[in-house]
Amino acid sequence: MATTTTPDIIYTKVDEAPELARISLEPIIRSFASAAGISVETRDISVAGRVLSLFPERLTEAQRVSDDLAWLGELVKTPEANVIKLPNISASMPQLNAAIKELQSKGYDIPDYPEEATTDEEKSIKARYDAVKGSAVNPVLREGNSDRRSAKAVKAYAKANPHRMGTWTAASKTHVSSMPGNDFYANELSATITAAQAGAAKIVFTGSDGTQTVLKDKVTYTEGEVVDATFLSAKALRAFIKAQIKATEPGVLFSVHLKATMMKVSDPIIFGHFVSVYLEDFIAKHGAELDALGWNPNSGIGDLDKRIAGNATLEADLKAAMAAQPPMYMVNSDKGITNLHVSSDVIIDASMPAVIKAGGKGWGPDGAEADVNCCIPDNAYASVYDETIKYFKETGTLDVTTCGAVSNVGLMAQKAEEYGSHPTTFEIPGNGTVAIVLASGEVLHSQAVEKGDIWRSSTAKKAPILDWIQLGIARAKATGAAAFWLDKNRAHDAELIKYVVPALKAAGIDIPIMAPREATRFSFETMRAGKDCVTITGNVLRDYLTDLFPILELGTSAKMLSIVKLMQGGGMFETGAGGTAPKHVQQVYEENHLRWDSLGEFCALGESFNFLAEAKGMPKAAVLGAAVDYATQQVLDNAKSPRGRVGQDDNRTSHYYFARYWAEALAAQTDDAELAAHFAPIAKALVEGEDKIVAELHSVEGAPADLGGYYLLDPAKVTATMRPSATLNAIIG
How far, in Å, CA of 484 to CA of 472, rounded? Predict the structure, then answer.
């Protein structure tokens, strides 16, 4: 349970590979920090923890857990906050249902998710569960804007040890396809709230028969807040999908790239349209049977496979239907998992950089690489990937040994922009009009819609916008080259530009404002010249670019340093992306080898100690932070990062070397004699025990690991798996 005393450092408990890594690394962090009188505690933001916190009345006293996310949500609004946030699952509906089933199987009396909520109790249960779906964690914790960049040591290592890059040629048929219109970009309206308009509002749907339905009540806007309204036409979307299936050339893979984990209302629906159009003939033939089986296209082909398993006719017809369409881009060709398998596998900020890094290639169902038709329906951000592909076709493969670094300053505080729009996104029930109506009765935005359209409203508050601009200016001055990624022809961006222009004038600095397409080319040309560049962007682009550029520069986005300067003076330090976490944890289950790289955790840890030293006047924290930086550099220089195969160094081995180098640095430093004396014998023991410790860590590999679960791990089993060296454990404590 959460305590009332605020620890010096909060380390988050999460899911999948980052959570397994935490089990190994956190004891090391606690041990080293305690020597300096620094407290470290864990707070649970995992899917299982969030689910269990919803139903205390249904659980026994021993089963109840505190609502750590709510506790952290209050902490980040204070100067005392110092949070190291690991990547957590942004739960899709299939993931949420899987977590519920696992918890029920372990004796937790939690209800099923009611797909069709009719009673008040079902509506209450559904509302509680919906708070867990998607990027529920991030809007709560992100009370500051993002400063994300590669650490100098990481960038230097990437230049000296270049990762594999595919070869780009002008003949590549890989391209981005987007809707010709009637998408979120084309339909967007935006306005900045005046003092007279501030206050309560509601979102109302008026059907063609005049019947009114309040979609969202008790909405509140503040003066200076930018409020958007937009919709994507379902009819236009389906026409676009049909056209792209037909237009996909022989030898080219068909694919869709969305982010259903973050855009938890809109993108699963868009994903479902891709599934149902791709399988249109199959569904037309077997619609009644599929309805009886309870299949929803939003759940994907993976769920369909499970429901029709054993029905030879349906299985044969599905196979034939897929064979008649263009071959799919595969998530895992070895296991037959297609791009339309499950919506949570469709993560654009991981999938698109992977295609680009590979020279425009994706894996097909035949296990061979091929060019790809990359469908990104909405034009708001598709131009970034389209321009990237066009740029590399023109200029060839990026030289990672000479390119500069691209960092990001992202507007994300207080649920800024689309990633905070889940409670105000709706699938429209019929033809009619959706309007945002202010308390005065004034209609702020009004749009005619049709049944099945996806309507959403998103906002960005004035204080975060102004904070973001100043952070962007500061990083531009420190780096040299920078641009605000804002499109004057997009309604929302035009409102932000009204804030940016006077702020730049007041600061006496000229930072260009470019639409995403132009800014993409500007950034690549800057980095190709060996210079560093800052991308100053909104929330979604922050997420996309902090995968795209690092994956091209460093081979991964997990090694990025992410500093969130909280607006009330605290600090949050995020540790890289978790898009590959499911694949990593699957390898642990199969052969007890974890290739997850904790370099992002190392970087965040050093910054967290530095924050304690600077903000709270703790000199010992500064000594620990400097030693963390040294240890991180040594892990890189000595090639002790995790590798992919059994018998090679994995995550646990890298943690041993990190602890050893950390202890050696602390023993050798002269700024704090007490810490030097404390760590001298620890460093000696870690050096002398190397052979035995490494042998113990490797001894468990090769056989399947039993973790006691997926969403809720068995503490004893996962500790035995992730801390298998008795020698190391005895030294660390």
Answer: 8
